[in-house]
Amino acid sequence: MTDGLHLTLVRHGATDWNGAGRWQGWSDTPLGAVGEDQAARLRPRLAGRSFDRVFSSDLARAARTAELSLPAGTPLTLDARLRELHFGVFEGVTTDEVLGDDRYARWQLDPWGTPAPDGESLSQVGARLRDWAGELPGGRVIAFTHGGATDTGA
Q1: Which is the most buried residue in 43, 46, 59, 151, by most CB within 10 A?
Q2: Out of 2-16, 80-94, 95-109, least confident range
Q3: Which domains does the chain have, with CATH numbers?
Q4: Which UniProt keywords apply (predicted)?
Q5: Would you call 6 a catalytic residue per the annotation?
């Protein structure tokens, strides 16, 4: 990253799948009513703050959070590198179902080095996020992304 960078990360608002305990990953689920409200309530907190660049994951839930929380017409750059971890076979499945799957236990032995079945590893998420961040020119940047993308330690 370039010196002089001030980066703000925002996790998207809630979806109906969040409420149901379903793993979303790269599934393009929209914000639910709760998430729309969360994004709208973020708007006053961001008011008065200026950003040189605004980025979002290309998934609808993150982009919609950006649209609702920033002034209308704010230029938004979508970037797939800001996506959630790809959970592979666990996408759309509830946490209870995932925890009962032997493949989950094997993946959890080394989630950094081992991809989720038909998905990706945490190190792969970290690599794509570092790639994105390495291209930032500095200044004040805000990025709307996902919980897994902000928790990888990238």
Answers
A1: 59
A2: 2-16
A3: 5-148 (3.40.50.1240)
A4: Hydrolase, Isomerase
A5: no
